[in-house]
Amino acid sequence: MFAAPLRRARRYRGGGHRDRGRAPRAPAWPCWDGGGGSCGPGTPLCAPNFPVFLTGSIAMATAGRARPPGPPRYTNRLINEKSPYLLQHAHNPVDWYPWGQEAFDKAKKENKLIFLSVGYSTCHWCHVMEEESFQNKEIGAIMNENFVCIKVDREERPDVDKVYMTFVQATSGGGGWPMSVWLTPDLKPFAGGTYFPPEDSARRVGFRTLLLRVAEQWRQNKDALLESSQKILEALLAMSQIRVQGQQSPPPSEEVMATCFQQLSNSYDEDYGGFSESPKFPTPVNLNFLFTYWALHRATPEGARALQMALHTLKMMAHGGIHDHIGQGFHRYSTDQHWHVPHFEKMLYDQGQLAAAYSRAFQISGDEFFADVAGDILLYVSWDLGDQAGGFYSAEDADSYPTTTSSEKREGAFCVWAAEEIRALLPDPVEGAAEGTTLGDVFMHHYGVKEDGNVSPMQDPHQELKGKNVLIVRSSPELTAARFGLEQGRLSALLQESQRRLQAARAQRPRPHLDTKMLASWNGLMISGFAQAGAALARQEYVSRAAQAAGFLRRHLFDPASGRLLRSCYRGEDDAVEQSAVPIQGFLEDYVFVIQALFDLYEASLDQSWLEWALQLQHTQDKLFWDPKGFAYFSSEAGDSSLLLRLKDDQDGAEPNANSVTVTNLLRAACYSGHTEWVEKAGQILAAFSERLQKIPLALPEMARATAVFHHTLKQVVICGDPHGEDTKEMLRCVHSVFSPNKVLMLADGDGAGFLYRQLPFLSSLERKDGKATAYLCSNFACSLPVTSPQELRGLLCQ
């Protein structure tokens, strides 16, 4: 038998993710989400002419993660790294190397295969494989004898991860983390998979046996494997190219938008929101698309449905267990249709995108519910993911010790509750309710708490949550208040007091691991979340926090001498910010998300220094990543000989595709600078992705949204006025209160020597009318008649 031929990964229709055939929480699926942390079965694979001993159903792994006893017996090279994920493996009996020349030279000198293991620090199944296999000294001895073993943090090196995940997906149609790939000494993949149990079972060969068989194949069939690896590389190169075909032009936006809307509508869950049955992912890119579709089709039934789908999904998520009702913020995804039982890790990129989505929902609907959820997210990030220097940490783990004396970690232990715990914390009688009613009774009814736990065994195959409750809003405030004979204001106060007590009790539990790596790209997404929320909710403290984080990026993740971004920095000893010995240069996504953040921050703060930096970074991005032949941007820059492929991402996932976001960035940059070549570049990106956008825009909802922005032309909303004047502030509040996807905001403050006036000379011709703050809507170098009242301005913005 032989492995499947190379093919494109199947598409998961429930929200633009790659098809991972996802399954309920905690069977032995590798972690996966196309951007950092959900789960789905990554089918193991092998190259043509390699025996299929990597295939088969995935066996169940042990659920608990044991506390290591005493001082470490082993220490390897990873002890010198900064990545929390690599440091987690620094005391394995495996002779791990970080990705780098030392490992490559050793493989060539000793003519050894490379075993590449890729994961991240909050990946549940990465923890499992480490405990079962990488901490096993016998398996470690086999690895050390036969392979040069390399460990990669996918969040540090997304370029390495993408190359080998492309191989895994192309040969199996799935993938995930931990990703396990065998390479020739010249780094070409020939076999791989995801999580492997340590020992053989009736259904599948174990990791120990697999290592021995791969080593034996290398000894006996080296030439065949080398030939096969070369053919695989050539096939991957051919199939991964995204380039403009002939004289292709950007696809028609109406067609792309209509198709994407229909595909989302077809997969929409009418009852619980979201775009699949289970598992369910937040997918903010889908919600942003729907908001834009509504804004362009407000008067149509389709527009109304788009808005209803987005708002209902956001409400159901906020009520669900995916939302942490005690500690705030959102978990990675839900394992069930009802948004109830989550995979408990929390990722920074989710918080940033969801804060922005809930802020837009408030902007559109005026419903304070959405503003409260946005504030809840930002409170969590400020408290739990914020570094004292101003940056944001990457993630919080799903696993933790249930108590200070526990010897094994369990998923969700920090977040779940037994009914008796809640009753003990909330014993107070409730005045005005039926006799004998306690605070616990009210809270448990509202949040669906059951005496024997509210988690279905189907969602808990390892019984980690047996007898426990994941809080989920099961009753509206009106119904809960009516059931207990309470006024709604009184109910709200009781629930807040209950949450306060549970939060204090939870603070005594051992906290999950915190990944204190700080990434430029994810910090960019979070800055956008704070800036957009600050503008839409009129909360200056959010704008200030965004500016603090942007200042952090400029100090710690930017090299002013070269004008280049760095990928990552780390919390070190005494909480100081540290950099690795050889800093990792920024990737395309770092530039794109930071540039987007700086534009958002300028619009919220009107500080032109952020605008100036954004345009500088856009020029640098063009030099480092633009493909002048095939158009669009490569994910990594040229010149790294260890990267076999230079790729362009082809879909929006847990994070939007960098090329999708950069289309809008380029259009904004052109509006702020007058450089029309950026508009041309935006069109060339859309042309390069034209076929994909017309056939399956659901894979690229953010880019589909950008096609509409491109074809409708961005409007420059110019407010001429004194930044400190109340009339100017009133006009700015009007602009921020209206959701308009095709506008950019700028303040013409009369300073002719300022950055904006130097970039856009036409601003000097715009005047205040009758000495009042005056608004103009400009596009294609022509401006509307001036308006001086917020009501008139609102009318223009809603056209």
Automatic annotation (TrEMBL):
InterPro entries: 6-hairpin_glycosidase_sf, 6hp_glycosidase-like_sf, Ssp411, Ssp411-like_TRX, Thioredoxin-like_sf. GO terms for biological process: carbohydrate metabolic process. SUPFAM superfamilies: Six-hairpin glycosidases (SSF48208), Thioredoxin-like (SSF52833). It comes from the Eukaryota. Residues 75-236 form the Spermatogenesis-associated protein 20-like TRX domain. This is Spermatogenesis associated 20. The gene is SPATA20.
